[in-house]
Amino acid sequence: MQLQINGRGLTIDVDPDTPLLWVIRDHLQLTGTKYGCGAAQCGACTVLVDGHAVRSCSLSVESAQGMKITTIEGLGGDHPLQRAWIKRDVAQCGYCQSGQIMQAAALLAANPKPTDSDIDAAMAGNICRCGTYQRIRAAIKDAAGVV
Question: In a 3-state reduction of DSSP, which class is residue 137?
């Protein structure tokens, strides 16, 4: 399988039905993307695929061929959302945060100045067991420059 992850072309020898999440974590050791529910319900495994937020646990590696895949590592650590996350001290346990940030990155790419309702709608599928939703919304607004 030929993949493009975080700007790098990669050849991966796996079963075509392997979920993209397992390739990212187990084969490439990019462990920022988390396994949550395994059923595309919690958002912990969210990555960008051609700029859209996608649950990597439910996308086969075969389906991801030819697409630009970005993981949390691909944001580089100095992305405006990552800076806003730190500024707002968003994370508690932190487990869902990479998925939250990737979902927010897709939102801001499509809607650079989201309203509260835009943010709530876009982030509704990403579950945070710690309940940091207010700080997540504030960080997204910081990154968007709408605060």
Answer: helix
Contact status, residue 102 vs residue 43, Cβ threshold 8 Å:
no
User: Which residues, including other chains, have CB under 8 Å from residue 43's CB and lie 6 or more apart?
Assistant: 36, 55, 96, 99, 100, 103, 125, 126, 127
Strands 8-11 and 52-55: what pairing?
unpaired
Q: What is the pTM of this model?
A: 0.96
pLDDT tens string 62-114: 999 999 999 999 999 999 999 999 999 999 999 999 999 999 999 999 999 99
- Going from the C-alpha of 49 to that of each of 70, 106, 108, the distances in angstroms are 7, 10, 15
Residue 146 has pLDDT above 90, yes or no: no
Whether the Cβ atoms of residue 3 and residue 57 lie closer than 8 Å to each other = no
Give residue 114's region: left, alpha or beta (phi > 0; psi -120 to 50): beta
The amino acid sitting at 115 is T
